[in-house]
Amino acid sequence: MTSIQERLYPELPCFGCGQANPKGLRLRSYRGEGGLVTAAFTPWPEHDNGLGYLNGGVIGTVLDCHSAAAVMAEADERGWRPLGGAALAYVTAGLDVRYLRPAPLTEEVELRAAVVEADEARMTAEVSLWWDGKPRAEAVALWKRWRPRS
């Protein structure tokens, strides 16, 4: 199955979700029923927070980039393509992260995202990182239409 990233922006070099970045995380997200977008992510030993858990900055990165997949899939479905000169239709305008409990460094975690508000100017997605049946971090991501300026 082709991921949202591979289908919609395969040449993007983004560290978190860019398939064209061989040193990046290369998230692969998939749209399921009801618009829920899911992904699996296995941390690397280098993602240690110094205490044996997943680093908060890495958590923020995967939440941001996974929410991107939900937003870009929504935009694609609605026909809101990137505007002239833009690599993507939307860019992150804000990410409000809440860390709930430690996330493992050595085991696969699940990412979940859904667009909860959408119009052509902006979208809001709720995104979370889960492990062992519990949310470990949650975020609300605000995305705005990318309007390149010269």
UniProtKB/TrEMBL annotation:
The lineage of its organism: Bacteria, Bacillati, Actinomycetota, Actinomycetes, Pseudonocardiales. This is PaaI family thioesterase. InterPro entries: ACOT13, HotDog_dom_sf, Thioestr_dom. Belongs to the thioesterase PaaI family. Gene3D superfamilies: Hotdog Thioesterase (3.10.129.10). Residues 52-130 form the Thioesterase domain. Transmembrane segments: none annotated. CDD domains: PaaI_thioesterase. One of its GO terms (molecular function) is fatty acyl-CoA hydrolase activity. Keywords: Hydrolase. It comes from the Bacteria. Signal peptide: none annotated. The keyword Transcription regulation does not apply.
